[in-house]
């Protein structure tokens, strides 16, 4: 009868409505917790697969529930000695007197991206240690990327290195997004009475003078097609500032800007403005800019290929 059909319909609605309401949140939780790692077939636990055969993979817990995947590459003069060595050996080498570079990479992808491996090789060939973390939410690191969270991660890695590196110089190299992480972290350290030994800013952007399209971490949320229909703009509460220009006014470390004239993401005049601001608060001697010719085609990620780079870094 129609009465039975109506009752059945009401029953089905009563049962299905809570599921329908909670389904997007459930899917979102599963996506965040068990998200796909990119690249799909790369094993970040094996840096030798990325042609870094004197590198060890490790995991650092920066705060409860946050584990960072990190690579440590020793100077390439020690590559034979490094074969088969464990984490304790790698950590002990940090105090050998060689400078230690902490490389804060750009947005998306992982510490295994080719241009990031390229930078590690250049620095290793110069006799330097290179420590490359994947921020929370990147690569095989856990957690959701936020500006504050990335700064916490960077501070932890710096303190971890300093606790093991003795009197060795510790230098930040930030690329793209990593330039903002580097300056945020340098300023936090200044507030603690610590001045980083040096900071390299490659492909630096300035959110105060340059419109950044979209949300920097939107890639993190859209791991599966169609998610936007279930929960639009899940990053709405994930506010980003990245006040690099203001940070430069507070920094006390020597700064080297590296930029390409044909950078398709950050126009060269943006970098020149930041160099001028930083120099006005320190000095022309302590703040340098090296601009690479646009005809070389380095764009935003390719400066590591320049044959002059080792001489510049020395």
From TrEMBL:
One annotated Gene Ontology cellular component of this protein: endoplasmic reticulum membrane
SUPFAM superfamilies noted in UniProt: alpha/beta-Hydrolases
Signal peptide feature range: 1-18
Molecular function terms, GO-annotated: monoacylglycerol lipase activity; phosphatidylcholine lysophospholipase activity
UniProt record, GO biological process: monoacylglycerol catabolic process; phosphatidylserine catabolic process
Keyword Signal carried by entry: yes
Alphabetized UniProt keyword annotations: Signal
The AB hydrolase-1 domain, residue ranges: 99-204
Name of protein: Si:ch211-117n7.7
Organism, as annotated: Sphaeramia orbicularis
Name of the gene this protein is made from: LOC115434227
């Amino acid at each position: 009868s129609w009465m039975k059909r109506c009752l059945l319909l009401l029953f089905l609605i009563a049962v299905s409505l809570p599921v329908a309401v909670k389904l997007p949140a459930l899917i979102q939780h599963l996506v965040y917790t068990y998200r796909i790692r990119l690249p799909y077939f790369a094993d970040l636990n094996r840096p030798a697969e990325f042609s870094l055969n004197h590198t060890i993979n490790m995991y650092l817990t920066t705060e409860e529930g946050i584990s960072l995947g990190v690579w440590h590459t020793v100077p390439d003069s020690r590559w034979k000695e490094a074969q088969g060595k464990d984490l304790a050996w790698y950590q002990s080498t940090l105090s050998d007197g060689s400078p230690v570079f902490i490389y804060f990479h750009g947005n998306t992808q992982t510490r295994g991206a080719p241009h990031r491996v390229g930078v590690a090789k250049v620095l290793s060939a110069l006799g330097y240690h290179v420590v490359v973390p994947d921020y929370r939410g990147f690569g095989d690191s856990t957690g959701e990327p936020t500006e504050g969270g990335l700064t916490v991660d960077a501070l932890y890695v710096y303190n971890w290195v300093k606790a093991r590196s003795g009197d060795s110089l510790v230098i930040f190299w930030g690329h793209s997004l990593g330039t903002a992480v580097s300056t945020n972290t340098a300023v936090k350290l200044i507030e603690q009475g610590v001045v980083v030994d040096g900071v390299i800013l490659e492909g630096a952007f300035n959110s105060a003078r340059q419109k950044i399209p979209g949300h920097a971490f939107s890639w993190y949320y859209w791991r599966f097609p169609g998610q936007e229909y279930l929960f639009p703009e899940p990053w709405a509460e994930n506010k980003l500032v990245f006040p690099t220009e203001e940070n430069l006014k507070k920094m006390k470390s020597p700064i080297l800007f590296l930029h390409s004239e044909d950078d398709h993401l950050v126009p060269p005049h943006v970098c020149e403005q930041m160099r001028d601001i930083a120099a006005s608060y320190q000095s022309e001697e302590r703040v340098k800019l090296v601009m690479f010719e646009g005809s070389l085609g380095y764009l935003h990620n390719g400066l590591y290929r320049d044959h002059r780079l080792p001489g510049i870094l020395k």
